[in-house]
Design a protein that fits this description.
Blueprint (H helix, E strand, L loop, with lengths): L1 H37 L2 H17 L1 H10 L2 H25 L4 H29 L2 H29 L5 H25 L12 H14 L1 H28 L5 H25 L5 H19 L5 H27 L7 H34 L11 H4 L5 H20 L4 H8 L1
Helix pairs in contact: 1-2, 1-5, 1-6, 1-7, 2-5, 3-5, 3-8, 3-13, 4-5, 4-7, 5-13, 6-10, 6-12, 8-13, 9-12, 9-13, 9-15, 9-16, 10-12, 11-12, 11-15, 13-15
Membrane topology: Multi-pass membrane protein
Protein name: MFS transporter
Keywords: Cell membrane, Membrane, Transmembrane, Transmembrane helix, Transport
């Protein structure tokens, strides 16, 4: 039975992996299209926000629905309805040159219905698998997610050389249909869990999800840790480019970003193949400790090869951190509240990205870069070690951030509430 359930999970996972690649194709090509249309980075940032924020903000409501209704049906509904946003963008492109607000409207519509998909997908993993399979499944889910940032940009670059953005949108739309067919195939093979209809308000449902999250103290603390991790990843995503471009070119920058992303792909693949057998707190702490070390090393020098290697190793550690926290959280949330809980966990853990996107530029431009410019306050001291000039302040910010992550790695195993999660 376990093998059959894992096989059903793999069918759904394959569909979601293909869909993730398609979403990455659209994200990359729309970003290029909007920049070429407006010649402003702020327009691309607005597009990214429209694609990112609605699914985060609405994920708790998607979680409520995932607990009220058949989770496989919720995944199908989320996939199908999100397609209409892409169809809208495609239609306005076929009719002529679209405005930025029209593209953002279509992307926002798609993102709204992704909020139905994600909590149901997370909760379905618990439905299908045993506790021993959670870690392997988490690694595979991260592998699929990382493909959006690694495989999709490369494929999009190749495809754009001989086809236009409209064709790529059609490809993405077709990948959603593949996902729907995969989920429908699994749903036919499973006895659908009967969920008793409820007239309970959304607010009360959300409160029950929150209560499930805080019932075991360590679960909320682990969620906060995930938010801190996304905060630092958001820092790196935002500031990698302005740190590197002062002393390298865009082609080299693209290579550094791609190789760094391969690290996350490799880490996820290792977990997906070999899994993690217990000792989750130890894996979490070691993963965070090495992540902090490699984060600091990214900012230590202007040697591109050294930075690339450190970036690769930093991203390779993240799946071990995420999987350890994921399994411990999943094991301590009742299955009937998994959807609501994961919806709330989604918004809390992703707040780190929002905070990073909001503060990274300000910290870099207004605080750290001025310190290491010629004549800056730290130019004659720290500057002798890590260098001076534009972008070196970002390097200092990375070093400090890495040290803070290392401190967190030492503190976590000493937290009684988190230790109790593993014992239980």
């Amino acid at each position: 039975m376990n093998n059959k359930s894992f096989g059903n999970f793999m069918i759904i996972w394959m569909g979601e992996w293909i869909s993730s690649i398609g979403s990455g194709l659209t994200a990359f090509t729309l970003g290029v299209y909007v920049f070429q249309m407006t010649q402003t980075a702020s327009s691309v940032a607005l597009l990214t926000l429209c694609a990112f924020l609605p699914s985060i903000v609405l994920s708790p409501f998607g979680g409520v629905l995932a607990d009220r209704f058949d989770r496989r049906l919720m995944m199908i509904a989320g996939d199908l309805l999100s397609v209409f946003g892409l169809v809208y963008v495609l239609i306005i492109m076929l009719l002529g040159e679209p405005h930025l607000w029209q593209i953002c409207l279509g992307v926002t519509f798609s993102s709204i219905f992704v909020s139905l998909l994600e909590p149901a997908y997370k909760a379905t993993i618990t439905d299908l698998l045993t506790e021993e399979q959670f870690a392997k499944a988490s690694g595979l889910v991260q592998l699929a997610a990382s493909s959006k940032y690694l495989l999709s940009p490369i494929l999009a670059g190749i495809l754009l050389s001989f086809m236009d953005i409209k064709t790529i949108l059609l490809i993405d739309i077709s990948t959603f249909l593949v996902t729907v067919l995969a989920v429908m195939a699994v749903r036919r093979n499973l006895q659908t869990e009967h969920r008793v209809p409820t007239n309970q308000s959304f607010v009360k449902d959300l409160k029950e999800g929150w209560d499930a999250l805080i019932y075991t103290k360590g679960v909320l603390q682990l969620t906060i840790i995930l938010s801190v991790v996304t905060f630092y990843v958001g820092f790196l995503q935002t500031l990698y480019t302005p740190m590197l471009l002062p002393f390298t070119d865009t082609k080299t920058l693209g290579t550094v970003l791609s190789v760094s992303a391969i690290g996350m792909l490799l880490g996820s693949l290792i977990i997906g193949v070999f899994s993690i057998d217990r000792k989750y707190i130890k894996v979490l702490a070691l993963g965070l400790g090495f992540a902090g070390l490699f984060f600091s090393l990214v900012g230590l020098t202007t040697n591109v090869a050294f930075i690339t290697a450190a970036g690769f190793l930093f991203f390779a550690t993240l799946p071990f951190v995420n999987t350890s926290a994921d399994v411990m959280i999943r094991n301590h949330i009742p299955n009937d509240t998994q959807g609501r809980a994961w919806g709330i966990i989604g918004i809390l853990s992703q707040l780190g990205y929002v905070a990073a996107y909001a503060f990274a530029g300000i910290l870099a431009d207004q605080v750290f870069n001025p310190l290491l410019r010629e004549g800056g306050l730290l130019a004659s001291s720290v500057g002798k070690v890590i260098g001076t000039g534009e972008g070196r302040g970002i390097g200092l910010l990375f070093i400090i951030s890495g040290l803070l992550i290392i401190i967190m790695a030492f503190v976590i195993p000493r937290m009684k509430s988190i230790r109790c999660l593993e014992r239980e």
